[in-house]
Amino acid sequence: MTVVETEPARTSAPVTEPAGAVPPVADEPRRIGGPTRSGVLALCGAAASALCVAVLLFGQIAPFSGALGFTVTWYAAFLVLYAVLTGLEEDGQAVRDRVMTAVLWTAAGLLFTALALVVGFTAWRGREALPHGNFFTQDMQAAGPLDPLSNGGIAHAMLGTLIMIAIALAITVPLGLACAVYLNQIPGRFSRFVRTIVEAMTALPSIVAGLMVYAVWILGLGMQKSGLAAGFAISVMMLPIVIRASDVVLRLVPGTLTEAAEALGAPRWRTVWHVVLPTARSGLATAVILGTARGIGETSPVLLTAGFTAALNADPTSGPMVSLPLAVFNFVKSPEPTMIARGFGSAAVLMAIVLILFAVARVIGGRGPGHQTKRQARRTARASRRDIERYGDSNSPRGAENCATSHPQPAPDNGDSDR
C-alpha cells in the first residue's frame, strides 16, 4: 500500500505596504482649456492689486494725472501681477499663455466696444430722421436746409449707391476671381509680376483712381459724368482687394484635392471649376465682401466722376448721380441741425446696406468645406439610403438573375464553328 504525502495548503498572507510609502495616485486627464478656480482668483487678485498700485501712484507717490494714464498704468500693473501670480503654480509656458490670452481678450473687447460706439452713436444721432417714411422714398430736389425732416429724403442716394456698387461688382468679381485663379494655378515669372502690381495697387489712393477715370472717360473720350464712370472708379479700388484676398483663400485649398482630380484624368479647367472654387467658396465670398466694403464707402472718386445732384436719377449712363457717402459729406457740413440729422441717418442706412450685402454674400457663399446645413445633411442621407437600396438589390439573387438576363454571357467556343 502506497501512502501519498500531500503538502499543506499555502495561505497567502496579506501584503502590507512599508511605513512611509506614498500610495499610487490615479492618472487624471490634464485640463487644457476653460477657467479654473485658481485662474479666476489670480485674475481677480491681479486686477484688484493693480488698481491699488495705480491709485497709490496717481494719488500719493508720483505726480501723475489723467484718466488715460491711470488706465494704462493699471493695465500694465495688472499684466505684471497676473504673470507673477500665475507663475506661483504654473511653468513659464503656461504663464505666457495666460498673459497673452488676457491681452487678446482685451484687444477683442476694445475692438467690439469701438464698433458698438460707432454704430450706436451714428444710429442715435440719426434717430430724428430715420422714423420718417419720406426719408427713404423722396429726394432732396424740393427740400432745402431749412425744411423740416418731414420733407425730402435720400432715395436718390440709396439708388445711386446700389447702381454704382452693382456696376463695380459686375466688373470686379469676374476679373478678380479669374486673376486670382491665374496667380494660383499658373505660377511663373509673369504671375509674380502681376502679384507685385496687385499688391502695389492695394495702397492706391482713391483720389488717384477717380482722377484716372476722369481723365480717360470724361476728358479723353468726351463722356459726361455718370454713375457708370463712378462704377469704373469704384471697381479700380475694389479689384486689388478682391484679387489679393481671393489669392490667399485659393492657396489654402489642399493640394491633395487637385492632385486627386488630376489623377482621375480631369483637365485643369474642370479641376478648378468643380474642386478648387467650390472648396474655397466661403472664403471667396469673404473676399468679395472686403472689396465691397472698400468700394461702397468711397467719396472722392464718386464726386469726380459722377458729380452731385439732389434729384433722383436711375440712368447710370447719363446725368450726374450721387451716392450715400457723398450725401453724408454734403449733409454734415451744413450748420443746420436737420441737415446734420439727415447726414447721420444716411450713414446709418449705409451701414444697414453693408450689413444686408454681407448677409447675402454669406448665404451665397455657404459654409466651409465639411460643414453642411440641415437641409444638405438630409439630402445626403437620402442619397446614401438610395445607394444602399440599389446596392442591396444588385447583390440579391433576383437582382443577380435580372443582371444576368439583361447581360447574357457569350457561349463558350469549343472549336465547332470552324468545322
Report on the architecture of this protein.
The protein is mainly alpha-helical and 419 residues long. The protein folds into two domains: 37-125, no CATH class; 135-371, Orthogonal Bundle (MetI-like fold). The chain is 67% helix and 0% strand. It is built from 16 helices and no strands. It has helices spanning 37-61, 67-87, 92-125, 134-137, 155-185, 189-201, 206-220, 227-251, 255-263, 268-279, 281-296, 300-305, 324-332, 337-365, 374-395, 397-406. Helix 1 (37-61) packs across helix 2 (67-87), helix 5 (155-185) packs parallel to helix 8 (227-251) and helix 6 (189-201) crosses helix 8 (227-251). The chain starts with 36 loop residues before the first helix and ends in a 13-residue tail after the last helix.
Summarize the structure.
By secondary structure, the protein is mostly helical.
* SS-derived structural category: mainly alpha
| Tally of structural domains | 2
Report the CATH C-level class of the largest domain.
Answer: Mainly Alpha
Mean pLDDT: 81
- Strand fraction band? under 5%
Q: What series of H and E elements makes up the topology? A: HHHHHHHHHHHHHHHH
Number of helices: 16
How would the blueprint of this fold be written?
Layout: H1 37-61, H2 67-87, H3 92-125, H4 134-137, H5 155-185, H6 189-201, H7 206-220, H8 227-251, H9 255-263, H10 268-279, H11 281-296, H12 300-305, H13 324-332, H14 337-365, H15 374-395, H16 397-406
Helix pairs in contact: 1-2, 2-3, 3-14, 5-8, 5-11, 5-13, 6-8, 7-8, 8-11, 9-10, 11-14, 13-14, 15-16
GO biological process, one term: phosphate ion transmembrane transport
Transmembrane segments: 40-61, 67-88, 100-124, 154-184, 196-220, 226-243, 343-365
GO molecular function, one term: phosphate transmembrane transporter activity
